[in-house]
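User: Fold this; tokens only.

Assistant: Input:
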Amino acid sequence: MPAYRLFFNLLALLLLLPPLYLTYHLNGPWLWRWSGPAGWFVNGLALLAIALFYWTLRYYDSGEFIGLKQWRKRLESVEDQEHFHLSPIHRFVRHPWYFLALVLIWSRDMNLPFLLTAIVITLYFWIGSRLEESKLMAYHGSLYQRYRERVPGLLPLPWRYLSKEEAEEFKRDAERG
């Protein structure tokens, strides 16, 4: 069990390499290429996604996420060691890293191999978010259910988000247990 998460992440990384290799080494006709103002806009979105990803890193325990913490401490449990917490971007979307990755993927020039890879990765994120949701429901119960009802999963919606005050209330409820 201590190596479960570390092994899972290494396997996921290794399984990602073949499709990435094929995506960038197979040629196909361009389905679309961003240029002019649209190109500047999508490249700006991609840079913003990268910057937000790096900014959100400080809100996660990267040792636990990767699995090194569980390995070092020889933890026998598969449960997350962290408690329920919200980063500022979690006010707008429940799975910010998936969302930012989707922005990055879909803001690129697209040929057929890249489109197929983008679709598969999008499906992977959608299925993965569903699996993660059931895990989070089991760990955090009604608190996560309330959060889930208020904040969208993969794509932010302008009418569904938490105010700063609501996010603080969720944090207080999590601390109370």
